[in-house]
Write a structure and sequence with these properties.
This protein is of the alpha/beta class. It has 8 helices and 11 strands. It starts with a strand and ends with a strand.
């Protein structure tokens, strides 16, 4: 049974989609704006997101970008009345898996949903490894063996970002831009504080730190 999030501000359409997808034995939740969508994506793990571009407040492209930058790996179908090549390219470049312009046939949408759910079921990128640590991007949990290590949401997002870019060093300023993004209160010192907290929680005595300091530059997770 898949868990699907529909993000669209047309109640008539979301009602139809919810009904059709529930008949496919999926659990379906609905968000009518971008802020609500991001809140739900932070709280729950979904296999698929059906995401309209034209939304009140934060648009669908920004939702997609923010979700992907935080390590979100659910399959995403962009669903929109905007059908230009530029819009399609923008959505795919930001991490969407498929694009379906409105109006559309339910049969075509269902076909794409099934295909993406099959692909999602066999993907191997859900869990990232850093040495003896495993990061589950779907459940946003970190474990060493059988022991789960509690992290704050932002600590997990920072670690996940570095783990997805192993071997690449980032300055504190770059990490503020990539991980904190819209949080204008975040500063380079914010990054250093979170790195310090991660080391306290994750490092093993007499072993190399999980997050390595590159002298005179910034931080990285070693390629292994």
């Amino acid at each position: 049974m898949a868990k699907i999030l529909i993000v669209d501000d047309e109640p008539a359409l979301t009602a139809v989609l919810r009904n059709v997808l529930q008949r496919e034995h999926s659990t379906v939740e609905v968000a009518e704006d971008g802020n609500t969508a991001l809140a739900l994506l932070r709280l729950s793990a979904y296999e698929l997101v059906i995401l309209d571009i034209m939304l009140p407040g934060i648009d669908g492209l920004k939702v997609c970008e923010t979700y992907r930058s935080g390590g979100g790996d659910a399959a995403i179908i962009m669903l929109t009345a905007k059908g230009s090549v530029d819009d399609k390219a923008a959505g795919l470049d930001l991490g969407a898996d498929d694009y379906l312009p409105k109006p559309f046939q339910l049969k075509e949408l269902l076909s794409r949903v099934r295909a993406l759910l099959r692909r999602s079921a066999v993907r191997t990128g859900t869990v990232l490894a850093i040495g003896t640590l495993s990061l589950n991007q779907r459940t946003r949990t970190v474990a060493r063996g059988e022991q789960t290590i509690p992290l704050s949401l932002k600590e997990f997002e920072l670690l996940s970002f570095l783990a997805r870019h192993k071997g690449v060093a980032f300055t504190s300023e770059q990490l503020v831009e990539r991980v904190w993004r819209s949080d204008t209160a975040a500063l380079p010192e914010t990054v250093r504080t979170h790195i310090k907290n991660l080391r306290k929680k994750l490092d093993i005595p007499n072993a190399r730190s999980v997050v390595r300091h590159v002298r005179g530059y910034g931080y990285m997770v070693d390629a292994q």
